Amino acid sequence: MLDSRTTGLLALHGVVVLIVLPLYFVLLAILGVTFSDRFTYSLINFPLYLGGILAAGLIFFNFYRPLGASVARPDRARVFQVTNLQIFVLVLMLFGLIFATKDKAISRVLVGTYVVSSYGLLFLLNLLLPGMLSRVILKGNNLRTCLVIGSSKACQGLETWLEEKEVLGLDVIGLLTPDPETGNEQVTIDIPVLGEEKDLRDIIRQRGVNQVLLLETRKSKYWVQRILNVCEEEGCRMLIYNPWAEYFDYPLVSVKEGPHTFFTLGEEPLESPLNRLLKRTLDIAVSLPVVLFLLPPVTLLVWFMQKRQSPGPVLYSQARRGFNRREFVLYKFRSMHVNPPEADESIQATRDDPRIFTFGHFMRRTSIDELPQFWNVLRGDMSLVGPRPHLPQHDVIFARDVKIYPQRHFVKPGITGLAQCNGFRGEITDVEVLRRRVLYDLQHITDWSLWADLEILAKTALIVFRPPATAY
């Protein structure tokens, strides 16, 4: 029920955007013609551009899912993400039409003003409209009067969630406990305790309850069936809480396989052959020109600087673990002096590390030393975006410190990743830094999309010119 309401609200949000954007274009055109003598209505091909805007608005429906969190509370990070995607599509559509039709009459000032100002308009709509729609639509007869069944301790962990769902029309009136609770079992909650489970039928009738939320099963099929029978006989919806989620650090995802339902520890969009093909296409499209045109001249420059400051091989190779923990050889430009045979190569680089020569510091700070990894991407050992690969010795140590660390190997390692875009780059100084880094990696695995990869690549390009303090 709640998922359907969220989906419906986001669909209505999309319809509003679909109406507002063309009207906004017409409004700007009217203002432009009224207050400027540079163009007239006859110079604007309204059917062409309004059709393009409508087409872009229809594509937007693929982006609205992350806004579900903003229905209860505005989530600016997700709003920025969705708005960036919308503007990207809108720019491609409008300027693609101009290029394809060779329309020289349309005012570039009008189109530019429309695109720039639409960013602010879309951001405000994405930020505020879902919540406004829910408050207008999901009230009155659309309210769901909800009764919670379970111990006060079980209910305590869901209080915040229940408050957030009020915006979806879930009106929680109280709690029924399985048995009389003693003082030792009770905890303080804001939801009033209305009685015990045996009072369910009477309270449904007295309070007009049409939604029951069952928090526990008591490992008794008979007990659950008795509650279900009452709900069915009284015409009351039933929502059953999954207690297994308490055993894990991240949400469980239900998987329907024929008549059976399973739970898995996160979705994996890259298990789709189509998504893998899209990601591989992006990898080749970027890495091939880099290897052919950029890598050779940069290699000559690096060789020249190494010869002056630290003679030795141009490239540095190391075994790393990648997809499914398979080992591969990773290539980098050598940024350190050639180590003696007895040196421990597993020691992480530190700030002002004496092993790094002068130009090596510059390469590491600007990520030039990573450029040969585009060859790894072209070979298929790595991807442009993914968890950064570490030494096999470090994998063993890190897996002891953070139990979920090995799940990074569900996908190919990357030259850059979500963790690096959020400041987690370079030396891993403590377990908390490692844990947060791993969580970002796993978030990218479960939330993967081609748009997310493109956004991470764009952020990485900015980081190259403005390296963080940990880039050493």
Textual characterization of the structure:
With 472 residues, this protein is of the alpha/beta class. It has 3 domains: 2-137, no CATH class; 141-241, Rossmann fold (3-Layer(aba) Sandwich), CATH 3.40.50; 271-338 and 348-465, no CATH class. Helix content is 50%, strand content 12%. It has 15 helices and 11 strands. Strand 6 (253-257) and strand 7 form a beta hairpin. The two termini are 51 Å apart.
Task: Give the gist of this structure.
The chain has 472 residues and is α/β, with parallel strands linked by helices. It contains 15 helices and 11 strands.
Helix proportion: 40-55%
Q: What general outline do the C-alpha atoms trace?
A: flat
Number of helices: 15
- What order do the strands of the largest sheet run in, or round the barrel if closed? 3-2-1-4-5
Number of structurally distinct domains:
3
Question: What fraction of residues sit in β-strands?
Answer: 5-15%
Order of helices and strands: HHHHEHHEEHEHEEEHEEHHEHEHHH
The main sheet comes to: 5 strands, parallel
Number of strands: 11
Helix/strand/pairing class, anyone? alpha/beta
Q: What's the alpha carbon Rg, rounded to whole Å? A: 29 Å
Distance N to C terminus: 51 Å
Helix and strand topology:
Blueprint: H1 2-35, H2 46-60, H3 76-101, H4 108-137, E1 144-149, H5 152-156, H6 159-164, E2 170-177, E3 193-196, H7 200-207, E4 211-214, H8 221-233, E5 237-240, E6 253-257, E7 260-264, H9 273-309, E8 315-321, E9 327-333, H10 358-366, H11 373-379, E10 383-385, H12 392-401, E11 414-416, H13 418-421, H14 431-446, H15 450-465
Parallel strand pairs: 1-2, 1-4, 2-3, 4-5, 10-11
Antiparallel strand pairs: 6-7, 8-9
Helix pairs in contact: 1-2, 1-4, 2-3, 3-4, 9-11
